[in-house]
Amino acid sequence: MSRLVLWLAAVTFVPFGIWVLADPTGLAAMTERTVATPTAMTESRAVDGGLLIGLGIFFAACALDPTRTRAGLLAMLLTLGGPFLGRLVGVALDGATAGTLQAAGFELALGALAAIALMRDARPLGGRHP
What we know:
mainly alpha; globular
């Protein structure tokens, strides 16, 4: 299950990151943000696109190496958990929107899969695969 969850994240993050890298205005429109300056466009390409590509490749690398699946799942859980927490705070302080709830649902679902896979694999973090 661990490798499947990591592959699911990889095949989700990399294409989405490539899309944002190519078209940061598309994500900006989805999230009701503006990218009105070259600096803002580059920042969106780098953080919203490039970071997702890098994480997706990391998740794929962890899926390919059974000794690194737990580290990949932990990184995945934290990578999704942080933004999910931020969205919960945003919903409490700013109110919920459809876009916010959709993103939170995605983060919760994939994060829950990572947590379940971590719990099913009792090896210590960084431990050898039996």
